[in-house]
Sequence to fold (226 residues):
Amino acid sequence: MPHLLLIDLPTERTTAATDLLLAVLATGIALWLHRMGSGGDRFRVRIWTALFALLGLAAGLGAVAHGLQMPLWLNDLLWQPLNLAMGLVVALFVVAASVDGFGLPIARRLLLPLLAIGVVFYLVTCLLPGGFLLFILYEGLALLLVLGLYLRLMFVRKGPGAGWMLAGVVVTLLAAVLQASPVAVTLIWPFDHNGIFHLVQMIGVVLLACGVRTTLLAAESEKIEG
Fold:
């Protein structure tokens, strides 16, 4: 079946391989988080679990779309759930940061509107020329908002896990900048901007997972002491 052959372009192969690694990492973190948290932290855990699960889904679809030869219509079809998943990941990132920055009641009220915005930006990528650049703008604005929340948490409120979160957001911003840039390197194998983005984003994912873990452990410790 020729349509299931690996793609010939070396940079697409490394992009697919790094997408697959990101998918495994994000899905593993989602499964780990699914076992954590209860009581008042359940909403926080569910948001982060959904975020990492959607990221894993998007990366897995990206591995297939970048790595396998297939008809153009099928490739275009794969990008639809991928782009929707990424739009929702960005929205959930803002919701997750809002739990820490604004509190649980406000974060709950923001959930549906922010998810709706994520869907709108997915539709923009479908309907308008240059939609991907608009998505990058949407992602960048969301990340800057999250960055501001965790800067405040770290330096003003001294929130537990804020340092890890801040580092994860900075690395994620760097990854987004690299993805939008015409960068390419050879590290044994050739990597284009997408492959580099995945490598850097994996570091950001690990840092964010460390931040979530620290926050959950601190909340659990407070409940025990209380």
